[in-house]
Amino acid sequence: MKTEVAIVGAGPAGLLLGHLLRAEGVVVTIVERASPDYVLGRIRAGVLERTTTDLLRRLGIDARLDAEGLCHEGFALADGERLIRIDIAGLTGGAVTVYGQTEVTRDLMAAAPERGLEIVYEAGDVALHDIDTDAPYLTFEQDGAPSRLEARFIVGCDGFHGPSRKAIPASVAKVYEKVYPFGWLGILADVPPCDHELIYANHDRGFALASMRSPTRSRYYIQVPLDERLEDWSDDRLWDELAVRLGPEAGSRITRGPALEKSIAPLRSYVFEPMRHGSLFLAGDSAHIVPPTGAKGLNLAASDVAYLSQALSAFFRHNEGTLIEGYSQRALARIWKAERFSWQLTSLMHRFPDQSGFDRRMQMAELDYIAGSRAAQTAIAENYVGLPL
Ligand code: FAD
Ligand code: DHB
Protein backbone atom coordinates (compact mmCIF):
# COMPACT_ATOMS: atom_id res chain seq x y z
CA MET A 1 0.00 0.00 0.00
CA LYS A 2 1.11 3.56 -0.69
CA THR A 3 -0.02 6.89 0.73
CA GLU A 4 1.36 10.45 1.10
CA VAL A 5 1.00 10.76 4.89
CA ALA A 6 0.78 7.68 7.14
CA ILE A 7 -0.64 8.51 10.58
CA VAL A 8 -0.14 6.15 13.52
CA GLY A 9 -3.14 6.34 15.91
CA ALA A 10 -6.80 7.31 15.40
CA GLY A 11 -7.33 9.27 18.61
CA PRO A 12 -8.29 12.94 18.42
CA ALA A 13 -4.87 14.05 17.10
CA GLY A 14 -4.73 11.46 14.30
CA LEU A 15 -8.35 11.87 13.20
CA LEU A 16 -8.22 15.67 13.24
CA LEU A 17 -4.93 15.76 11.31
CA GLY A 18 -6.30 13.23 8.82
CA HIS A 19 -9.35 15.41 8.13
CA LEU A 20 -7.34 18.66 7.90
CA LEU A 21 -5.00 17.08 5.36
CA ARG A 22 -7.84 15.50 3.36
CA ALA A 23 -9.45 18.96 3.16
CA GLU A 24 -6.24 20.11 1.39
CA GLY A 25 -6.30 17.16 -0.99
CA VAL A 26 -3.46 15.22 0.67
CA VAL A 27 -3.72 11.41 0.54
CA VAL A 28 -3.77 10.01 4.10
CA THR A 29 -3.99 6.59 5.74
CA ILE A 30 -4.40 6.15 9.51
CA VAL A 31 -3.27 2.92 11.16
CA GLU A 32 -4.84 2.29 14.58
CA ARG A 33 -4.10 -0.56 16.98
CA ALA A 34 -7.51 -0.70 18.68
CA SER A 35 -11.10 -1.16 17.47
CA PRO A 36 -13.44 1.83 16.97
CA ASP A 37 -15.44 0.80 20.07
CA TYR A 38 -12.31 0.68 22.20
CA VAL A 39 -11.24 4.17 21.08
CA LEU A 40 -14.75 5.49 21.84
CA GLY A 41 -14.89 3.74 25.21
CA ARG A 42 -12.15 5.84 26.83
CA ILE A 43 -13.73 8.68 28.82
CA ARG A 44 -11.21 11.49 28.85
CA ALA A 45 -11.29 15.21 28.01
CA GLY A 46 -14.37 17.35 28.42
CA VAL A 47 -13.40 20.99 27.79
CA LEU A 48 -12.60 22.40 24.34
CA GLU A 49 -10.86 25.69 23.65
CA ARG A 50 -12.04 27.99 20.89
CA THR A 51 -8.91 27.03 18.88
CA THR A 52 -10.17 23.42 18.90
CA THR A 53 -13.82 24.13 18.10
CA ASP A 54 -12.69 26.49 15.28
CA LEU A 55 -10.89 23.57 13.61
CA LEU A 56 -14.04 21.41 13.78
CA ARG A 57 -16.08 24.31 12.39
CA ARG A 58 -13.60 24.89 9.57
CA LEU A 59 -13.98 21.22 8.63
CA GLY A 60 -17.78 21.46 8.79
CA ILE A 61 -17.81 18.67 11.39
CA ASP A 62 -19.78 20.81 13.83
CA ALA A 63 -23.48 19.92 13.63
CA ARG A 64 -23.55 17.92 16.89
CA LEU A 65 -20.99 20.21 18.51
CA ASP A 66 -23.33 23.16 17.90
CA ALA A 67 -26.45 21.26 18.97
CA GLU A 68 -25.04 19.56 22.07
CA GLY A 69 -21.88 21.45 23.14
CA LEU A 70 -22.33 23.63 26.23
CA CYS A 71 -20.84 27.12 26.10
CA HIS A 72 -19.14 27.96 29.43
CA GLU A 73 -18.31 31.59 30.14
CA GLY A 74 -16.75 30.94 33.54
CA PHE A 75 -15.66 28.36 36.11
CA ALA A 76 -14.89 28.40 39.81
CA LEU A 77 -11.93 27.70 42.09
CA ALA A 78 -13.03 26.53 45.55
CA ASP A 79 -10.99 26.59 48.74
CA GLY A 80 -13.17 24.32 50.86
CA GLU A 81 -15.47 27.14 51.91
CA ARG A 82 -16.15 29.63 49.14
CA LEU A 83 -16.35 29.61 45.35
CA ILE A 84 -14.08 32.06 43.49
CA ARG A 85 -15.62 32.59 40.06
CA ILE A 86 -13.28 33.15 37.10
CA ASP A 87 -15.36 35.13 34.62
CA ILE A 88 -13.75 33.91 31.38
CA ALA A 89 -16.07 35.93 29.13
CA GLY A 90 -15.81 39.15 31.13
CA LEU A 91 -12.02 38.92 31.47
CA THR A 92 -11.09 37.69 27.98
CA GLY A 93 -14.15 38.05 25.73
CA GLY A 94 -13.93 34.29 25.05
CA ALA A 95 -15.52 31.05 26.27
CA VAL A 96 -14.87 27.30 26.28
CA THR A 97 -17.15 24.48 25.12
CA VAL A 98 -18.00 21.42 27.18
CA TYR A 99 -18.20 18.57 24.65
CA GLY A 100 -16.64 15.18 25.42
CA GLN A 101 -13.57 13.80 23.68
CA THR A 102 -15.67 10.70 22.94
CA GLU A 103 -18.12 12.85 20.96
CA VAL A 104 -15.35 14.69 19.06
CA THR A 105 -13.86 11.31 18.15
CA ARG A 106 -17.26 9.88 17.17
CA ASP A 107 -17.96 12.86 14.86
CA LEU A 108 -14.52 12.66 13.21
CA MET A 109 -14.84 8.88 12.73
CA ALA A 110 -18.32 9.21 11.20
CA ALA A 111 -17.14 11.81 8.66
CA ALA A 112 -14.07 9.79 7.57
CA PRO A 113 -15.55 7.56 4.79
CA GLU A 114 -17.29 10.40 2.90
CA ARG A 115 -14.07 12.45 2.91
CA GLY A 116 -11.82 9.68 1.69
CA LEU A 117 -9.97 9.36 5.01
CA GLU A 118 -8.82 5.76 5.16
CA ILE A 119 -8.51 4.21 8.63
CA VAL A 120 -7.16 0.73 9.27
CA TYR A 121 -8.41 -0.43 12.70
CA GLU A 122 -7.12 -3.35 14.78
CA ALA A 123 -3.65 -3.22 13.22
CA GLY A 124 -1.19 -5.40 15.16
CA ASP A 125 2.53 -4.82 15.78
CA VAL A 126 2.75 -1.41 14.10
CA ALA A 127 6.42 -0.55 13.44
CA LEU A 128 8.13 2.44 11.82
CA HIS A 129 10.99 2.05 9.32
CA ASP A 130 13.49 4.25 7.43
CA ILE A 131 12.36 7.50 9.10
CA ASP A 132 15.79 8.98 8.26
CA THR A 133 14.98 8.76 4.54
CA ASP A 134 12.40 10.31 2.15
CA ALA A 135 10.70 6.93 1.81
CA PRO A 136 9.65 5.82 5.31
CA TYR A 137 7.14 3.00 5.77
CA LEU A 138 5.03 1.24 8.37
CA THR A 139 4.65 -2.47 8.83
CA PHE A 140 1.77 -4.04 10.73
CA GLU A 141 -0.51 -7.06 10.85
CA GLN A 142 -3.99 -6.85 9.44
CA ASP A 143 -6.35 -9.82 9.93
CA GLY A 144 -3.31 -11.93 10.76
CA ALA A 145 -1.50 -11.06 7.50
CA PRO A 146 1.61 -8.84 7.27
CA SER A 147 1.07 -5.44 5.65
CA ARG A 148 3.35 -2.60 4.52
CA LEU A 149 2.34 1.05 4.05
CA GLU A 150 4.78 3.30 2.18
CA ALA A 151 4.58 7.07 2.65
CA ARG A 152 6.43 10.36 2.17
CA PHE A 153 5.90 11.25 5.84
CA ILE A 154 4.82 9.42 8.99
CA VAL A 155 3.05 11.24 11.83
CA GLY A 156 3.02 9.65 15.29
CA CYS A 157 -0.37 10.42 16.89
CA ASP A 158 -0.22 7.23 18.95
CA GLY A 159 -0.44 8.67 22.47
CA PHE A 160 2.03 8.35 25.31
CA HIS A 161 2.62 4.59 24.99
CA GLY A 162 2.79 4.26 21.19
CA PRO A 163 5.86 3.25 19.13
CA SER A 164 6.47 6.55 17.24
CA ARG A 165 8.35 8.54 19.88
CA LYS A 166 10.52 5.49 20.60
CA ALA A 167 11.57 5.39 16.94
CA ILE A 168 13.52 8.65 17.40
CA PRO A 169 17.11 7.93 18.51
CA ALA A 170 17.75 8.90 22.15
CA SER A 171 20.96 10.61 21.01
CA VAL A 172 19.01 13.42 19.28
CA ALA A 173 16.22 13.77 21.88
CA LYS A 174 15.67 15.56 25.17
CA VAL A 175 13.04 14.56 27.71
CA TYR A 176 11.64 16.81 30.44
CA GLU A 177 9.42 15.10 33.00
CA LYS A 178 7.68 15.56 36.33
CA VAL A 179 5.62 12.77 37.87
CA TYR A 180 3.10 13.80 40.55
CA PRO A 181 2.58 11.66 43.67
CA PHE A 182 -1.17 11.20 43.07
CA GLY A 183 -3.77 10.35 40.43
CA TRP A 184 -7.35 11.31 39.57
CA LEU A 185 -10.22 8.94 40.26
CA GLY A 186 -13.04 9.84 37.85
CA ILE A 187 -16.73 8.93 37.87
CA LEU A 188 -19.27 9.41 35.07
CA ALA A 189 -22.96 9.25 35.99
CA ASP A 190 -26.32 10.11 34.46
CA VAL A 191 -27.26 12.72 37.03
CA PRO A 192 -27.57 16.52 36.67
CA PRO A 193 -24.35 18.43 37.51
CA CYS A 194 -24.13 20.14 40.92
CA ASP A 195 -23.50 23.51 39.25
CA HIS A 196 -23.94 24.96 35.75
CA GLU A 197 -20.17 25.68 35.63
CA LEU A 198 -17.07 23.60 36.47
CA ILE A 199 -15.63 23.75 40.01
CA TYR A 200 -11.96 22.99 40.80
CA ALA A 201 -11.68 22.55 44.58
CA ASN A 202 -8.66 22.57 46.90
CA HIS A 203 -9.75 20.92 50.16
CA ASP A 204 -7.75 19.73 53.19
CA ARG A 205 -8.59 16.18 52.10
CA GLY A 206 -7.33 16.79 48.53
CA PHE A 207 -8.41 18.10 45.13
CA ALA A 208 -11.87 17.57 43.59
CA LEU A 209 -13.36 18.61 40.25
CA ALA A 210 -17.05 18.89 39.35
CA SER A 211 -17.52 18.70 35.58
CA MET A 212 -20.19 17.53 33.17
CA ARG A 213 -20.93 16.20 29.72
CA SER A 214 -24.52 17.48 29.39
CA PRO A 215 -27.33 18.85 31.60
CA THR A 216 -28.09 15.25 32.58
CA ARG A 217 -24.61 13.69 32.68
CA SER A 218 -21.97 14.56 35.29
CA ARG A 219 -18.25 13.91 35.42
CA TYR A 220 -16.44 14.24 38.76
CA TYR A 221 -12.85 13.60 39.81
CA ILE A 222 -11.01 13.38 43.15
CA GLN A 223 -7.29 13.27 43.86
CA VAL A 224 -6.20 9.85 45.22
CA PRO A 225 -2.82 8.33 46.18
CA LEU A 226 -1.06 6.54 43.32
CA ASP A 227 -1.48 3.10 44.92
CA GLU A 228 -5.23 3.53 45.41
CA ARG A 229 -7.36 0.58 44.26
CA LEU A 230 -10.54 1.21 42.27
CA GLU A 231 -12.28 -1.66 44.14
CA ASP A 232 -11.94 0.28 47.39
CA TRP A 233 -14.13 3.08 46.07
CA SER A 234 -17.80 2.15 46.12
CA ASP A 235 -20.07 4.71 44.46
CA ASP A 236 -21.33 5.77 47.92
CA ARG A 237 -17.85 6.34 49.28
CA LEU A 238 -16.95 8.44 46.23
CA TRP A 239 -20.12 10.58 46.43
CA ASP A 240 -19.50 11.14 50.18
CA GLU A 241 -15.94 12.27 49.49
CA LEU A 242 -16.98 14.60 46.67
CA ALA A 243 -19.65 16.21 48.87
CA VAL A 244 -17.01 17.04 51.48
CA ARG A 245 -14.25 18.23 49.13
CA LEU A 246 -16.46 20.45 46.95
CA GLY A 247 -17.43 22.46 50.04
CA PRO A 248 -20.81 23.10 51.67
CA GLU A 249 -22.40 25.08 48.83
CA ALA A 250 -21.70 22.84 45.81
CA GLY A 251 -21.39 19.64 47.87
CA SER A 252 -24.97 19.89 49.09
CA ARG A 253 -26.24 20.16 45.51
CA ILE A 254 -24.71 16.87 44.29
CA THR A 255 -27.19 14.39 42.83
CA ARG A 256 -25.99 10.82 43.33
CA GLY A 257 -26.40 7.96 40.88
CA PRO A 258 -24.76 4.71 39.76
CA ALA A 259 -21.36 5.02 38.02
CA LEU A 260 -21.38 4.47 34.24
CA GLU A 261 -17.58 4.50 34.36
CA LYS A 262 -14.92 4.78 37.04
CA SER A 263 -11.17 4.91 36.44
CA ILE A 264 -7.89 6.18 37.89
CA ALA A 265 -5.41 8.22 35.79
CA PRO A 266 -1.88 9.12 36.95
CA LEU A 267 -0.72 12.75 36.63
CA ARG A 268 2.40 13.68 34.75
CA SER A 269 4.11 16.62 33.01
CA TYR A 270 6.24 15.45 30.07
CA VAL A 271 7.81 17.06 27.00
CA PHE A 272 9.85 15.29 24.31
CA GLU A 273 12.00 17.46 22.04
CA PRO A 274 12.25 17.70 19.07
CA MET A 275 8.85 16.81 17.61
CA ARG A 276 10.34 15.98 14.21
CA HIS A 277 13.09 13.62 13.17
CA GLY A 278 13.69 13.13 9.43
CA SER A 279 10.39 12.08 7.86
CA LEU A 280 8.66 11.46 11.23
CA PHE A 281 6.59 14.04 13.11
CA LEU A 282 5.04 13.69 16.56
CA ALA A 283 1.74 15.32 17.59
CA GLY A 284 -0.42 15.22 20.73
CA ASP A 285 0.19 12.91 23.69
CA SER A 286 2.92 11.03 21.78
CA ALA A 287 5.20 14.06 22.38
CA HIS A 288 3.84 15.69 25.52
CA ILE A 289 1.61 15.14 28.54
CA VAL A 290 0.11 17.74 30.86
CA PRO A 291 -1.59 16.95 34.17
CA PRO A 292 -5.35 17.26 33.47
CA THR A 293 -5.88 20.26 35.78
CA GLY A 294 -6.68 23.05 33.32
CA ALA A 295 -7.98 20.79 30.52
CA LYS A 296 -5.13 21.36 28.07
CA GLY A 297 -4.19 17.87 26.71
CA LEU A 298 -6.69 17.44 23.90
CA ASN A 299 -6.49 21.13 23.05
CA LEU A 300 -2.70 20.90 22.64
CA ALA A 301 -3.14 17.87 20.38
CA ALA A 302 -5.46 20.05 18.27
CA SER A 303 -3.02 22.98 18.07
CA ASP A 304 -0.15 20.63 17.12
CA VAL A 305 -2.12 19.24 14.20
CA ALA A 306 -3.27 22.72 13.15
CA TYR A 307 0.41 23.71 12.75
CA LEU A 308 1.36 20.39 11.16
CA SER A 309 -1.48 20.35 8.63
CA GLN A 310 -0.40 23.82 7.45
CA ALA A 311 3.18 22.61 7.13
CA LEU A 312 2.34 19.39 5.29
CA SER A 313 -0.14 20.99 2.90
CA ALA A 314 2.41 23.72 2.03
CA PHE A 315 4.82 20.88 1.21
CA PHE A 316 2.41 18.84 -0.93
CA ARG A 317 0.65 21.78 -2.65
CA HIS A 318 3.54 24.21 -3.18
CA ASN A 319 6.64 22.09 -2.57
CA GLU A 320 7.44 24.53 0.25
CA GLY A 321 9.37 23.08 3.20
CA THR A 322 9.88 26.07 5.53
CA LEU A 323 6.89 25.30 7.75
CA ILE A 324 8.00 21.68 8.03
CA GLU A 325 11.40 22.85 9.23
CA GLY A 326 9.76 25.15 11.80
CA TYR A 327 7.02 22.78 13.04
CA SER A 328 8.73 21.48 16.19
CA GLN A 329 9.81 24.90 17.42
CA ARG A 330 6.44 26.50 16.68
CA ALA A 331 4.45 23.74 18.39
CA LEU A 332 6.77 23.60 21.41
CA ALA A 333 6.43 27.34 22.08
CA ARG A 334 2.69 26.86 22.71
CA ILE A 335 3.17 23.51 24.48
CA TRP A 336 5.57 24.92 27.09
CA LYS A 337 3.11 27.67 28.02
CA ALA A 338 0.35 25.10 28.49
CA GLU A 339 2.77 22.92 30.50
CA ARG A 340 3.43 25.92 32.75
CA PHE A 341 -0.27 26.65 33.28
CA SER A 342 -1.20 23.01 33.95
CA TRP A 343 1.69 22.57 36.40
CA GLN A 344 0.84 25.80 38.19
CA LEU A 345 -2.87 24.98 38.56
CA THR A 346 -2.00 21.42 39.66
CA SER A 347 0.45 22.79 42.27
CA LEU A 348 -2.11 25.30 43.54
CA MET A 349 -5.07 22.92 43.82
CA HIS A 350 -3.68 19.56 45.11
CA ARG A 351 -2.51 18.25 48.50
CA PHE A 352 1.08 17.00 48.19
CA PRO A 353 2.17 14.19 50.57
CA ASP A 354 5.28 16.14 51.65
CA GLN A 355 3.46 19.47 51.93
CA SER A 356 4.45 21.51 55.00
CA GLY A 357 2.16 23.83 56.96
CA PHE A 358 3.91 26.70 55.22
CA ASP A 359 3.26 25.24 51.75
CA ARG A 360 -0.41 24.83 52.61
CA ARG A 361 -0.63 28.46 53.79
CA MET A 362 0.98 29.55 50.51
CA GLN A 363 -1.81 27.78 48.56
CA MET A 364 -4.48 29.42 50.71
CA ALA A 365 -2.83 32.85 50.38
CA GLU A 366 -2.63 32.47 46.61
CA LEU A 367 -6.31 31.52 46.37
CA ASP A 368 -7.16 34.50 48.58
CA TYR A 369 -5.07 36.76 46.35
CA ILE A 370 -6.80 35.39 43.22
CA ALA A 371 -10.20 36.00 44.85
CA GLY A 372 -9.39 39.71 45.22
CA SER A 373 -7.31 40.44 42.11
CA ARG A 374 -8.70 41.04 38.65
CA ALA A 375 -5.14 40.81 37.27
CA ALA A 376 -4.64 37.32 38.76
CA GLN A 377 -8.07 36.19 37.52
CA THR A 378 -7.28 37.51 34.03
CA ALA A 379 -4.02 35.54 33.88
CA ILE A 380 -5.90 32.35 34.77
CA ALA A 381 -8.78 33.08 32.38
CA GLU A 382 -6.60 33.79 29.34
CA ASN A 383 -4.70 30.54 29.79
CA TYR A 384 -7.85 28.52 30.47
CA VAL A 385 -9.66 29.86 27.40
CA GLY A 386 -6.58 28.99 25.32
CA LEU A 387 -3.59 31.01 24.11
CA PRO A 388 -3.70 32.10 20.46
CA LEU A 389 -2.31 29.78 17.79
P1 FAD B 1 -4.70 9.45 22.40
O1 FAD B 1 -6.07 9.95 22.70
O2 FAD B 1 -3.99 8.69 23.45
O3 FAD B 1 -4.81 8.58 21.07
C1 FAD B 1 -3.74 7.77 20.63
C2 FAD B 1 -4.27 6.67 19.72
O4 FAD B 1 -3.16 5.92 19.25
C3 FAD B 1 -5.21 5.72 20.45
O5 FAD B 1 -6.39 5.53 19.71
C4 FAD B 1 -4.38 4.44 20.57
O6 FAD B 1 -5.17 3.26 20.56
C5 FAD B 1 -3.49 4.55 19.34
N1 FAD B 1 -2.25 3.75 19.46
C6 FAD B 1 -1.51 3.55 20.58
N2 FAD B 1 -0.51 2.69 20.33
C7 FAD B 1 -0.62 2.36 19.03
C8 FAD B 1 0.11 1.48 18.18
N3 FAD B 1 1.15 0.74 18.65
N4 FAD B 1 -0.26 1.36 16.89
C9 FAD B 1 -1.33 2.06 16.41
N5 FAD B 1 -2.08 2.89 17.19
C10 FAD B 1 -1.73 3.03 18.47
N6 FAD B 1 -7.53 17.20 27.61
C11 FAD B 1 -8.22 18.36 27.39
O7 FAD B 1 -7.87 19.10 26.46
N7 FAD B 1 -9.32 18.72 28.15
C12 FAD B 1 -9.74 17.94 29.18
O8 FAD B 1 -10.75 18.27 29.80
C13 FAD B 1 -8.99 16.74 29.49
N8 FAD B 1 -9.34 15.92 30.51
C14 FAD B 1 -8.69 14.73 30.71
C15 FAD B 1 -9.08 13.91 31.73
C16 FAD B 1 -8.43 12.70 31.96
C17 FAD B 1 -8.87 11.84 33.11
C18 FAD B 1 -7.36 12.30 31.09
C19 FAD B 1 -6.67 10.97 31.30
C20 FAD B 1 -6.96 13.11 30.05
C21 FAD B 1 -7.61 14.33 29.85
N9 FAD B 1 -7.23 15.18 28.81
C22 FAD B 1 -7.89 16.38 28.63
C23 FAD B 1 -6.12 14.81 27.93
C24 FAD B 1 -6.62 14.23 26.59
O9 FAD B 1 -7.51 13.17 26.81
C25 FAD B 1 -5.42 13.76 25.76
O10 FAD B 1 -4.46 14.79 25.72
C26 FAD B 1 -5.83 13.36 24.33
O11 FAD B 1 -6.49 12.13 24.33
C27 FAD B 1 -4.61 13.28 23.39
O12 FAD B 1 -5.02 12.82 22.14
P2 FAD B 1 -4.03 11.99 21.21
O13 FAD B 1 -4.81 11.72 19.95
O14 FAD B 1 -2.73 12.68 21.13
O15 FAD B 1 -3.73 10.64 22.00
C1 DHB C 1 -12.63 17.55 32.58
C2 DHB C 1 -11.33 17.14 32.68
C3 DHB C 1 -10.37 18.06 33.04
O1 DHB C 1 -9.08 17.69 33.11
C4 DHB C 1 -10.68 19.37 33.31
O2 DHB C 1 -9.71 20.23 33.66
C5 DHB C 1 -11.98 19.78 33.18
C6 DHB C 1 -12.96 18.86 32.82
C7 DHB C 1 -13.68 16.57 32.21
O3 DHB C 1 -13.36 15.40 31.97
O4 DHB C 1 -14.86 16.96 32.17
Structure in words:
The radius of gyration is 21 Å and the shape is globular. Helix content is about 35%, strand content about 30%. It folds into two domains: about 5-70 and about 95-175 and about 270-345, FAD/NAD(P)-binding domain (3-Layer(bba) Sandwich), CATH 3.50.50; about 180-265 and about 350-385, D-Amino Acid Oxidase, Chain A, domain 2 (2-Layer Sandwich). It has twelve helices and 20 strands. A hairpin with a 7-residue loop joins β9 (about 125-130) and β10. The chain has helices spanning about 10-25, 35-40, 50-60, 65-70, 90, 100-110, 235-245, 245-250, 295-320, 320-350, 355-370, 375-385, and strands spanning about 5-10, 30, 45-50, 70, 75-80, 85, 95-100, 120, 125-130, 135-140, 145-150, 155, 175-190, 200-205, 205-215, 215-225, 260-275, 275, 280, 290. The chain is an alpha+beta fold and about 400 residues long. α9 (about 295-320) runs antiparallel to α10 (about 320-350). It has an eight-stranded mixed sheet with strand order 6-5-14-15-16-13-17-20. The chain has a six-stranded mixed sheet with strand order 8-2-1-12-19-18, with helices on one face. Strands 3-7-4 form a three-stranded antiparallel sheet. The longest helix is centred in the last third of the chain and has 28 residues, at about 320-350. Flavin-adenine dinucleotide binds near residues 13, 46 and 101.
Question: How is the topology of this model organized?
Answer:
Blueprint: E1 5-8, H1 12-23, E2 28-31, H2 36-41, E3 47-48, H3 50-59, H4 63-68, E4 70-72, E5 75-78, E6 83-86, H5 88-92, E7 96-98, H6 101-111, E8 118-120, E9 124-129, E10 137-142, E11 145-150, E12 153-156, E13 174-189, E14 199-203, E15 206-214, E16 217-224, H7 235-245, H8 247-251, E17 259-273, E18 276-277, E19 280-282, E20 288-289, H9 297-318, H10 322-349, H11 357-372, H12 374-385
Parallel strand pairs: 1-2, 1-12, 2-8, 5-14, 12-19
Antiparallel strand pairs: 3-7, 4-7, 5-6, 9-10, 10-11, 13-16, 13-17, 14-15, 15-16, 17-20, 18-19
